[in-house]
C-alpha cells in the first residue's frame, strides 16, 4: 500500500519537476561572494604556483622530520660532519661515554659520565654530545635517555633513543 502511494506521488510530481521554466520566468542569479580586493591577487598567485609545479618549472619538498623518499634505501650513507671534532664531551659519541652516576640537584638532575678520555663530565638535560643530546635523566631508575641523530634513509625518523643505565652492584658481590 505504501509503495503504491509513493509511486502515485512520484508520477504526479515528475512533470512539474522536469518541466522547463516558463518563458517569462527568470532564474535567480547566483551572486559571487564579495571579498577584499586582495583575494583575486592571492587566487591568481596560487594558480600560477600550481601551474609552475605542474609544468616542472619549480619543485619544493618539505620533509617535516621524515626521511627523503628520493634517496635510495639500499645504499649505505656515510655522512661526515664538516670540520674537526670538538674537544671534551661535545666531541664524543654516545657510545663512547659510560654512565657512572646520577646526582640530584635542586636545579635538576645531573648525570655523571666517564668519557673516552678518562675524564668525568656532568651533563644536564639538553646538553649535547657529538651525535646527540640528553633528553631525560631518570634518577629513580638510574637511566639517562639520549636522542641520537641517525642519518639512515631506511629509517622513518632521523633519530633514535639510546638508553644508558647504571650498573648496580649488590653487597657482597664486587
Task: Note the main sheet.
Answer: 4 strands, antiparallel
In the CATH hierarchy, the third-tier topology of the domain at 48-79 and 86-169 is known as SH3 type barrels
Strand tally is 7
Can you tell me the residue ranges where pLDDT is under 50 for at least 5 consecutive residues?
none
Q: What is the structural class?
A: alpha+beta
CA radius of gyration is 34 Å
Q: Gap between N and C termini, in Å?
A: 93 Å
**Helix count?**
2
Report the sheet-strand fraction: 15-25%
Key structural traits:
174 residues, 3-stranded antiparallel β-sheet, elongated
What does this structure look like?
With 174 residues, the protein is an alpha+beta fold. It has a domain at 48-79 and 86-169: SH3 type barrels (Roll). The chain is built from two helices and seven strands, in the order ααβββββββ. The strands form two sheets. A four-stranded antiparallel beta sheet has the order 4-5-6-7, with no helix packed on it. A three-stranded antiparallel beta sheet has the order 1-2-3, with no helix packed on it. A hairpin with a 5-residue loop joins strand 2 (110-114) and strand 3 (120-123). It is elongated, with a radius of gyration of 34 Å. The mean pLDDT is 77.
Quick synopsis:
Helix content is 20%, strand content 22%. The protein is an alpha+beta fold and 174 residues long.
Secondary structure elements and pairings:
Elements: H1 2-18, H2 38-55, E1 98-103, E2 110-114, E3 120-123, E4 128-129, E5 132-138, E6 143-149, E7 159-165
Antiparallel strand pairs: 1-2, 2-3, 4-5, 5-6, 6-7
Amino acid at each position: 500500500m505504501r509503495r503504491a502511494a509513493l509511486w502515485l506521488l512520484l508520477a504526479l510530481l515528475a512533470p512539474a519537476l522536469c518541466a522547463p521554466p516558463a518563458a517569462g520566468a527568470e532564474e535567480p542569479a547566483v551572486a559571487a561572494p564579495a571579498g577584499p580586493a586582495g583575494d583575486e591577487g592571492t587566487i591568481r598567485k596560487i594558480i600560477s604556483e600550481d601551474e609552475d609545479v605542474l609544468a616542472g618549472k619549480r619543485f619544493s619538498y618539505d620533509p617535516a622530520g621524515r626521511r627523503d623518499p628520493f634517496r635510495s634505501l639500499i645504499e649505505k650513507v656515510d655522512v661526515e660532519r664538516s670540520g674537526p671534532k670538538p674537544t671534551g664531551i661535545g666531541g664524543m659519541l654516545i657510545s663512547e661515554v659510560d654512565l657512572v652516576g646520577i646526582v640530584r640537584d635542586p636545579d635538576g638532575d645531573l648525570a655523571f659520565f666517564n668519557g673516552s678520555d678518562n675524564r668525568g663530565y656532568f651533563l644536564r638535560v639538553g646538553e649535547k654530545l657529538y651525535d646527540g643530546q640528553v633528553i631525560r635523566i631518570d634518577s629513580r631508575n638510574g637511566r639517562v635517555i639520549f636522542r641520537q641523530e641517525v642519518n639512515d634513509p631506511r629509517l622513518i625518523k632521523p633519530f633514535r633513543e639510546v638508553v644508558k643505565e647504571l650498573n648496580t652492584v649488590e653487597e657482597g658481590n664486587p
